[in-house]
Amino acid sequence: MTRRFLLLGRTMGAHLKTFRKARNACSRRSGLTLIEVLLSVFVLAVAVAAVISATTHTLVGIRQNEVGILATNAVVRKMELLKNLPFDDPSGTNDLVGQAPTTPFADGLEALPGATGTIAVCDYDLSQNPPPCETTLPFGNTNVLRVTVSVTVSAGRTFQLATLVSRELTL
Questions:
Q1: How far apart are CA 71 and CA 153, in angstroms?
Q2: Under a CB-based contact definition with an 8 Å cutoff, are residues 167 and 88 in contact?
Q3: How do beta strands 116-123 and 144-152 pair?
Q4: What are phi and psi of 154, to 5 degrees?
Q5: How far apart are CA 161 and CA 141, in angstroms?
Q6: Among residues 78, 71, 82, which one has the least CA distance to residue 152?
Q7: What is the 3-state secondary structure (H, E, C) of 50-76?
Q8: What is the DSSP string of 88-141?
Q9: How far is 161 from 51, CA to CA, in rounded Å?
């Protein structure tokens, strides 16, 4: 039994010497150099700048998408109102044929400062490809009208929706 402890003591002593050598080597160099500190500060600054840039771009994208959604909703609402108008009304006051060729509108654009809306109504002639929108009245020379609703926001982006509306024909 004594022999075992003696061997264990020798082994521990060898490990202790190795530990002391390692500790002495580390104690000679106890700290960071100026270059190491500057390099770590630079790496940290680059990482922070990347996070700030990504956050900024994300917020700008969110705002642009919000404007796009509001403009699209305004176009769709206006188009639904126009689709519910009769094709032609004998009184000529509240119908599609009585619309001016290009009519500005502002209702529904309150949430979009600086946005402008236009409604374009024209005869749709299939013999011309693409059919042009005539700017002269009267409309109703054909049985089909092309109705286009556009909203232009302050950034110059235009949101547009077009549809064809036909006269009810009786056979």
A1: 8
A2: yes
A3: antiparallel
A4: -60, -25
A5: 23
A6: 71
A7: HHHHHHHHHHHHHHHHHHHHHHHHHHH
A8: --TT-SSSSTTS-SEEEE-TT-TTSTT-EEEEEEEE--TTSSSPP---SS---S
A9: 38
What b/e string do you get for 48-74 counting C-beta neighbours within 10 Å, with b at 16 or more?
A: eeeeeeeeeeeeeeeeeeebeebbeeb
For 24-59, what is each residue's pLDDT tens digit?
655 556 678 899 999 999 999 999 999 999 999 999
Burial of 105 from C-beta contacts in 10 A (0-12 / 13-18 / 19+)? middle
H-type alpha helices, the chain: 2-28, 34-83
Query: Per residue in 54-101, pLDDT tens?
Result: 999 999 999 889 988 999 998 998 888 888 877 776 555 566 666 666
Q: Cα angle vertex 35, ends 30, 37, to 5°?
A: 70
Tokens representing 165 are 């509306």
Nearest to 98 by CA among 54, 63, 145: 145
Token pair listed for 20:
């002391």
